[in-house]
Amino acid sequence: MNELKEQILSVIEKRGKKTCTADMILDALNMHSSMDFIRVSKALEEMEKEYLVFRTDGNGFESREQRGVFEGRISIARNGMGYIDREDREAVRIEPDDQLSAMDGDTVLVACQLWQVYGTVIKILKRARTQVIGTYIPTARGLKFIPDDERLREKQYRVLSDKNFTPVEGLKVLCDIERYDGVMALRVARVIGHKDDPGVDILSILLDHDIVPEFPDDVNEQANSYGSVIKEEDIAGRHDLRSVRTVTIDGDDSKDFDDAVSVEANENGWKLLVSIADVSHYVTENSPLDKEARKRGTSVYVIDRVVPMLPHVLSNGICSLNPKEDRLTLTCAMQVAKDGTIASYELWPSVIRSDERMTYSNVNKILDGDEALRARYAHLGDLFDTLADCADAIRSARIRKGAIEFDSDEAEIKVDENGHPVSVEAKVRGHAEEVIEDCMIAANVCVANQLKWSQIPGIYRIHEEPSSRRIRDFVRISEALGHKLRLGQSNVYPNEIQRYLESVRDTNEFPVLSTLMLRCMQKARYDASCVGHFGLAEEEYLHFTSPIRRYPDLVVHRMLRKYLFEGCTDLAQMKQDEANCSEYAESSSIRERNAQDAEYACEDMKKAEYMLDHIGETYDGLICSVTPHGFYVHLPNTIEGLVQVKELRGDFYIFDKDRMQYIGERSHRIYRVGMPVTVKVLAANPAMHTIDFGLVGHNGSVQKKAPAFIKKREERKHVKKARDITRKGNRHGTKKHKR
After folding, report:
1. CATH number, domain at 147?
2. Is 504 a member of any domain?
């Protein structure tokens, strides 16, 4: 928006609810010439087209806020209802007829006053979806393209294709959307494969989220040009850490190692070195590799495959900190005090040679005293014990500051050679995983501090405090479950959340309460401004430690090189980098959410496919959420399924939204959040990502005294019944008298 438009908007907003005409705007801006009138009139006309201002009945102008118009991302449920979140208010609901041609995830302008619940889409600002995936299904009229997304099936569409394309039953294809309004025009762009072929289901989800496994030729060409051995001239000017005892610690299946650690105890605590692959040395700004990495934003990890941000030849090759090989790195050297605080730190360009490629499982065994493994890695001395002591101190210091530790299960899904799930378990997190996490967080905090106070452009990882509305909702649910959460009068602080979670940790409701609290939190995102990280209780935080798989980390490395190591003082360049970082932060946040959506979709699909093999089996679980159409039960293996209201037999059950429970009208039997139940698997649909449970026995709790709203309902029934009897008697009496 140019300066004149900003000035006009400021004048309109200062008028509040009073009429603001063009003449008033001219007077307020002290613009009185005919040329000024033309400029302001033209600007107002453009602002109307851009929906920045709106004309009133009195020929005045209103801003978006005054008109009750705001920008948001629409989420469309399977029943077609649209929802847009509002800060500290109930989400706006948008009926299908009021959505224009908006699709799930689109950024839209919505007209809805603060006191209203239902709104109307007035403009679609940005499309989230440019492609549609579907399958050719036989119908009475022949083969028909059916979109995989059921929310699109009610729309009218026609499919265009080249002459060489021949549809066959079960074929999955990717279509470009050529027109959104009216009858959607789709054009076949890519044949994915037959729906029953191994891997096609996951590939379809990836492509549906614009995650493409293949790299362009020019990107592969640049990646292949670096070879597998670093050049001697690349080492010049770097701290040589090749003689320092250093290891990487990652998962058993990892192939790209972008972080390595080294530690030594000293009289003041520990000297901790975190060395990160110097990807920015190879992925130069605006090169084909850089543009592709920026477009992808992140690597995507789904079930049985990885779609990397960088080609494997680079991410698993010269950028990967493979053992016994020289590698270019950036190192954060920290002096960690005995109380776990960071007393000082330095950042260097460096070169390392990792001594060993360690796995979490082996390090966990070593820390548990496995003699065979301790003997196998005896040449590393007491490295792992010292590292654990240092990391534990860092964690203790972070907890003292108020960092929140949530208890959320991650699923570990194993599949066979055909991609069929054979096991679903909760991923076990050991001491070694925590050790590496603590070291990486410490390095991230130090680098964020360096960028902020050196005024170097960068991308920060920010996490804002939760909205008061969500916290109020959580307090209500928690109190209904018998657990009080005491908060301050104004702001919410991380240590308050931390103390609360610790107080309920040993209760049956803890897994559910922890998950519900996590859902109350804002989503962490990337931003060019340093506004802090609520969950970690840090004033400065960013991502520095994974440049192979996250674009923001790569940008941070690039900024460190340019401004800290090379000493750039060009103010124009700095201003341009600040603008770039803002743009990259926004795009990286979008791509991260997109990748997470794809990962969750693949997990949900495979969990449903797994439960297809277990129809009729029973499981113990916890009720994790209650909705008007039933309640969801969470199993120990992370799988969740729905117990529909119709499956609550033997009584009429009333949904109590405030207490997140169902209560039987006659039996007063209760099913509420956090309650253990036994369920049977009734059905599963991998295509719809749904699992249906039924209850085994009546294992809900029975409330001896009916709550007030049940009593009032029964009283109304008795009164109505008495009235009906009286009326019936009167009618009979009248008839008898007449006879």
Report:
1. 2.40.50
2. no
